[in-house]
Specification:
The chain is globular and about 55 Å long. The chain starts with a helix and ends with a helix. About 65% of the residues lie in helices and about 5% in strands. The protein contains 12 helices and 2 strands. A two-stranded antiparallel ribbon has the order 1-2. It is mostly helical and about 230 residues long.
Length: about 230
């Protein structure tokens, strides 16, 4: 079973267990990748459309959304998915209250990504893990548009040109890490560090000691990362 079959199996398993929002989260992550094979993309879009149709049957009031944003991780994801389908400009106070309080980071960054996409031009306050950020979405970049992502992808494609499956996984790891950094955008140097960490993590996870050793000794790593 290849990577794409595993993702589809995971999504179907989540749906079978009634976890549609978790399945939708994975779908959005995969569809947001820089490269998605056409046949795989079609299957993802079909699944997403089916989930959204079922969820669309449900009607959430603003009061429902406010309550769910204070609820479990799954409830927050459902609320964010509903909000992201609306005009976020109409929910400034609700969004600001949510971002300013403790919440599920995965849901928060999905919301911020949509705020950037909708180019909201008011200031918002974000609190997470003891850190505070004030930002205006229209002046931020989505992860795939950042300098950090561009430098990471260039480095990964060079370092893993002979290992396409590893390259795909490394790109996804970097993308997810950049998502979790929102509303902050990574610069080129940070992108290179993330790429380096992704490669090391994958070699270690796969138990490929030879590949890891060769990579750690590579001239390209020494040149770009100064190791």
């Amino acid at each position: 079973m290849n990577y794409y079959d595993e993702i589809l199996e995971k999504i179907h398993a989540l749906l079978a267990n009634g976890k549609s929002m978790q399945a939708l989260l994975i779908l959005d992550e995969e569809l947001g990748m820089p490269y998605v094979p056409k046949d795989f993309e079609e299957k993802l879009l079909e699944l997403k459309s089916s989930i959204q149709f079922e969820e669309g049957r449900k009607s959430y009031s603003d009061e429902d959304l406010e309550r769910m944003l204070k609820g479990s991780n799954d409830e927050q994801l459902i609320a964010i998915n509903e909000l992201n389908a609306r005009n976020l400009r109409n929910y400034h106070d609700l969004i600001n209250d949510y971002l300013s309080a403790d919440g599920f980071i995965n849901a928060k960054v999905l919301l911020i990504d949509s705020m950037i996409a909708q180019e909201l031009n008011e200031e918002y306050h974000m609190v997470q893990d003891g850190m505070e950020y004030d930002f205006i979405p229209r002046y931020q970049l989505r992860p795939a548009e950042s300098d950090g992502f561009s430098s990471a992808v260039s480095y990964l494609e060079d370092a893993l040109m002979k290992e396409p499956s590893l390259l795909k996984m490394a790109k996804e790891i970097v993308y997810k890490e950049l998502m979790l950094m929102l509303p902050i955008n990574a610069d080129e140097e940070e992108g290179l560090l993330l790429a380096d960490q992704a490669i090391i993590y994958l070699y270690q996870a796969l138990g490929d000691e030879k590949g890891l050793d060769e990579y750690l000794k590579s001239a390209k790593r020494e040149l770009i990362l100064g190791t």
